[in-house]
Design a protein that fits this description.
Homodimer. It catalyses: N(2)-acetyl-L-ornithine + 2-oxoglutarate = N-acetyl-L-glutamate 5-semialdehyde + L-glutamate. One of its GO terms (cellular component) is cytoplasm. It is a single chain. With 398 residues, this protein is of the alpha/beta class. The chain folds into two domains: 23-52 and 302-397, Aspartate Aminotransferase, domain 1 (Alpha-Beta Complex); 67-300, Aspartate Aminotransferase, domain 2. It has twelve helices and 15 strands. A hairpin with a 3-residue loop joins β14 and β15 (368-371). The longest helix has 20 residues, at 303-322.
Length: 398
């Protein structure tokens, strides 16, 4: 069922599909007439525990009936609990809570500039990656590679140095060609850019950290999409021995509740002081309790192990079904890219998946189907996902 209106009061920043969902449960979304859709997108990697997880729902209901907001002018017990849990999971020292991934990345980029200020720099620069995406606030969109996202906003392009993702030599070269570099910011896996992984895998992160250490730069990781169990580790960089100075996350952090986080250690640990940054809503009692609940579920159950098992199962079976058509897969855990032949017209594929297969997917990087199912996807649901997507792609490439 779609929402029809002669005039919408919503700014046209999106072009939504002509369908509206009235409820969700686990891996499924339902329209008002109770038609089920298998959700392999989870709100773009947000509902990692599935829709309306009973323990998350209970935490929201209980806290909403107790205390929602006080502001950060007061100590917040649940914020302290959530901060300790998240920093423990990440191996970080402290956290600033924001409301989104873009805000978390904005905080990280402000830190990079402050780090340069403390060094006496007049024009600090940050190395970022081609095909990256970091958000839509002014600093984060300036760091983002997509020119369409930056167009018309007088972005701060001179403050960023773009290098190919996965190319450590390009970072080393930038160190010799540019002055006043303060940090490197990258995603362990590029989500919006097409589910791109470095050719050296996660060891690339260790290589980047080594260059940062050598040059006294901040090593900053954007795990807005890859964090919170999405790849089978709590954070994707934990597939390696790399340890960032700054780590951002959001999306799955609140399983649908809007909250983001910017964590620090090492060189970044003492950059922010009283008055350096702030957020009226960041780390409310309600949001913080949700974060703590998600942490408890991820750390005390086998959900992340399930993400690895089912993710591998999905990739292996899709490869077997589709390799003869020139289709391949890549990714980790429940962050999967199904790579179609480059010439494939994918402009209608998302709509066709919804209409013909009752399947919710996304296409990124022009010809990569992005799958971001719940981490706790059941085997029977994995089988349905494989069957529906295989049929869709075979019909498209026939």
């Amino acid at each position: 069922m779609s929402v029809s209106a002669a005039h919408s009061y919503i700014m046209p920043t999106y072009s939504p599909q002509p369908i509206s969902f009235s409820r969700g449960e686990g891996s499924w979304l339902y329209t008002a007439d109770n038609t089920p859709y298998l959700d392999a997108l989870t709100g773009i990697a947000v509902c990692g525990l599935g829709h309306c997880h009973p323990q998350v729902t209970e935490a929201i209901q209980q806290q909403a009936a107790t205390l929602v907001h006080t502001s950060n002018l007061f100590q917040i017990e649940w914020q302290e609990k959530a901060a300790e849990a998240l920093c423990t999971a990440a191996g970080m020292d402290s956290v600033f809570f924001a409301n989104s991934g873009a805000e978390a990345n904005e905080a990280a980029l402000k830190m990079a500039r402050l780090y340069g200020h403390n060094k006496g720099y007049t024009h600090p620069k940050v190395i970022v990656m081609e095909r990256s995406f970091h958000g839509r606030t002014l600093l984060s969109v300036s760091a983002t590679a997509n020119p369409k996202a930056r167009e018309g906003f007088f972005t701060l392009d001179d403050d960023f140095i773009r290098v190919p993702f996965g190319d450590i030599e390009a970072i080393k070269k930038a160190a010799t060609e540019h002055q006043q570099i303060t940090a490197v910011l990258l995603e362990p896996i590029q989500g919006e850019g097409g589910l791109n992984t470095a050719k050296d895998g996660f060891s690339y992160l260790e290589q980047v950290q080594a260059v940062c250490d050598q040059n006294d730069w901040l090593f900053m990781l954007d795990e807005v999409q890859t964090g919170n169990g999405r790849t089978g580790q709590y954070f994707a960089h934990q597939h390696s021995s790399a340890k960032p100075d700054v780590l951002t996350t959001a999306k799955g952090l609140g399983n649908g509740f809007p909250i983001g986080a910017c964590m620090v250690r090492g060189r970044a640990r003492d950059l922010f002081q009283v008055g350096s940054h702030g957020s009226t809503y960041g780390g409310t009692p309600l949001g913080s309790r949700v974060v703590h609940t998600v942490y408890t579920l991820l750390s005390q159950t086998d959900i992340m192990q399930n993400a690895v098992i089912e993710g591998d199962y999905i990739q292996n079976n899709l490869t077997d079904e589709l390799k003869s058509l020139g289709v391949s897969t890549r990714g980790y855990g429940m962050m999967i890219g199904v790579v179609l032949p480059e010439a494939t017209d994918c402009s209608t594929l998302v709509d066709e998946a919804r209409r013909t297969e009752q399947l919710i997917i996304n296409v990124t990087g022009s010809h990569v189907v992005r799958l971001l199912p719940p981490l706790n996807l059941a085997r029977s649901e994995s089988d349905q996902l494989i069957e529906r997507l295989s049929r869709l792609i075979k019909n498209k490439l026939a």
